[in-house]
Amino acid sequence: xxxxxxxxxxxxxxxxxxxxxxxxxxxxxxxxxxxxxxxxxxxxxxxxxxxxxxxxxxxxxxxxxxxxxxxxxxxxxxxxxxxxxxxxxxxxxxxxxxxxxxxxxxxxxxxxxxxxxxxxxxxxxxxxxxxxxxxxxxxxxxxxxxxxxxxxxxxxxxxxxxxxxxxxxxxxxxxxxxxxxxxxxxxxxxxxxxxxxxxxxxxxxxxxxxxxxxxxxxxxxxxxxxxxxxxxxxxxxxxxxxxxxxxxxxxxxxxxxxxxxxxxxxxxxxxxxxxxxxxxxxxxxxxxxxxxxxxxxxxxxxxxxxxxxxxxxxxxxxxxxxxxxxxxxxxxxxxxxxxxxxxxxxxxxxxxxxxxxxxxxxxxxxxxxxxxxxxxxxxxxxxxxxxxxxxxxxxxxxxxxxxxxxxxxxxxxxxxxxxxxxxxxxxxxxxxxxxxxxxxxxxxxxxxxxxxxxxxxxxxxxxxxxxxxxxxxxxxxxxxxxxxxxxxxxxxxxxxxxxxxxxxxxxxxxxxxxxxxxxxxxxxxxxxxxxxxxxxxxxxxxxxxxxxxxxxxxxxxxxxxxxxxxxxxxxxxxxxxxxxxxxxxxxxxxxxxxxxxxxxxxxxxxxxxxxxxxxxxxxxxxxxxxxxxxxxxxxxxxxxxxxxxxxxxxxxxxxxxxxxxxxxxxxxxxxxxxxxxxxxxxxxxxxxxxxxxxxxxxxxxxxxxxxxxxxxxxxxxxxxxxxxxxxxxxxxxxxxxxxxxxxxxxxxxxxxxxxxxxxxxxxxxxxxxxxxxxxxxxxxxxxxxxxxxxxxxxxxxxxxxxxxxxxxxxxxxxxxxxxxxxxxxxxxxxxxxxxxxxxxxxxxxxxxxxxxxxxxxxxxxxxxxxxxxxxxxxxxxxxxxxxxxxxxxxxxxxxxxxxxxxxxxxxxxxxxxxxxxxxxxxxxxxxxxxxxxxxxxxxxxxxxxxxxxxxxxxxxxxxxxxxxxxxxxxxxxxxx
Length: 976
Hints:
Domain HTH luxR-type: 916-973
Distance between the termini: 130 Å
Transmembrane segments: 763-781
Helix content: 10-25%
Strand content: 35-45%
Organism: Flavobacterium endoglycinae
Pfam families: Y_Y_Y
Largest sheet: 5 strands, antiparallel
Radius of gyration: 59 Å
Keywords: Coiled coil, Membrane, Phosphoprotein, Transmembrane, Transmembrane helix
Structural class: alpha+beta
């Protein structure tokens, strides 16, 4: 029973909106996160806000119920009549009750993420259904009360009781579990036992248009729309005067909220949010000029983290009132990058990249900011790097030199090429050493004023970071070179000693070195922790105290002591405070300053502390104030949520989502089982997730793990979506966790699903595969036996065929060989026969022709014998001789021979003549006889010349053929 009560109280904590454990900071303006209609993609008007037990935020929007999970916005449901939503309430089971325009009902969330709206209007009589906006919805005990100006609807046990007024109601209030109603004709009434009872003297409030009622130790505090604040105690109504009555009456109160310690937040129609304390003193005034999107505040609610949600006529704003950090702003917002800050003579000075500015600090911190603005100090319009009080003077170190500030103006006291900062020389309070762009400069205090003396000789390096020791040593850090240690001569006009230290002297690196002075000890900030100089070896070694608390893994960018023996530091991206518990023992405090990550001006990080406990941080986003009195809880629990799950292929299809009208099945109850079994074709999923932590939500990181697919958690990243493709069949659980800006890990969110195997890998498929496998094995065995038998028969047949084929091939080879031999022999015989035929033919032709010649000669000789006349015989002999000469020189027989010879010898004569055209016919005949392999003696009578003549002719032919002397002419002719 006790556990149930505790759980119930935890669930009801978000519902306790009038009084919450938070107090808004008085100094500065809290950090504000604005959500415009373009961001949440819904109507501009929002009227109410609530948070469920998980931490999810819901807003009553003109388009429906608007949900925000820290990353994504979506309209999750609408009333049945599609009207605007005006009010929300939620019970311990996260059942939301909704008041709309002309409708009211409740909303439940289904297992698939969808929200289902059910109207209750059907439970009221038809005559009472004509009503307008349900501006308030309240859960009290087992009843839900819906309020509209036309009637009050009390829902209990699935029945509705209707209370109506003849003149209509004005507004409705829940105060300390009591219900008050303002009636336009009767004034203030109280709802008891489903009846409206008059409050003593309540008629005095007729027409005052009460907009909020708080219960205080002095009775009821009533906020009216135009007449300011009133108290109701002991049945008496009195005005409650405040410092801001003129603001409240002129700008019309619209709503309110009570904070702890008696602070009250008052929303107005025309001037944003006004916060007063229990005495009516102004604590904060946050309007459009200070960061709100709109000056018309419609409602105010706080969440579990103590943040204030402000719904506006246009947009939504989140004010981080629980944070100890705030921004020093005024309506001018003239400052930009802050290089330094200082409170001097009750004025807050800030050194910026646009000059030096100041404002009245006492007026500002006391809340009187209407006419308090940063004012420019004339004379300086460029980068002011540093400011400091030296003696009775405020000096500013600027791009163009050193200036003395007095009132709203500054005068130049040293026009030099850029000044970084100044520091008093030890044991010489009248001497000021100024670090410049190109060395050091000396100023002297004369008659209360600082006068420029000269530049220090012997040192020309940029001197932005300077610290001194009691012995007069001056340490200068150059971020890109190393550390210089120097001493000045007795006249302070030149450097007498100079030493240089870098990585060679023990530093982990020569880059990004810094020097600081803590408890009169010189320390050095490096990329690997805090170092100091060993007094014996003179080497640079890690400092053991800072090593213990800050480690050796981060870049130490700043160390700054305060007057309470605490040490402020910037280590890597973390800002923190080392709180001294005892000598050498510290407690680290970093969580309140996580918001400052990435806000500093790189290389010009600055923290300023004051005796009153105020701490200022100069950033790129203006000046930020810290007050240690704020006690924010950083280790609160919160949840991660899976916003949406969808299949990617074959097309996007949502499995889980709270978005309105995206899933087909919206019927069901919260108790329905929800399981996701996906066919194998949908094995690619996309997950969207978020965390229900709204303080610097953009800095929240996430890790995820798909159990069943991945071996371990992923690394943390700002990614809020994850996609998986080609998931094999298996049961999966998707886990996601968040880690907020304070390093707190959320409760994890899980989504279980199963990817079913494809049809060919189901159990029925495997049974079929087994049966088919058996059939196949049987068929294979049977087939293999038949194949083996056929192969054996085929093998025998093949062997027989191979034997026959081998024999046939052998016979064929023999026949082929014999045929080839016969062809060779035939060719040889043909060649021989052709040659012999040629010779016979040639000889035959010659013989025939010779016979003809002999017959002619015989006939002539016969004539010689008959006539026996010497003259006649001589004439006949001459004819014979001429006949012989004619025949010896004739070509007729030769032409016949040449024709036969060319046929037998592949046109030898033509080829020879074309190749060697200078050959004569007699040369050609000789060559033909040589081709026929005749010798010289055989050739001589054929040519009718002597053997010597044949040799001469051969010699001439050799020259025409251009044959070398060692070449046989017969062989050449035979091979031609």
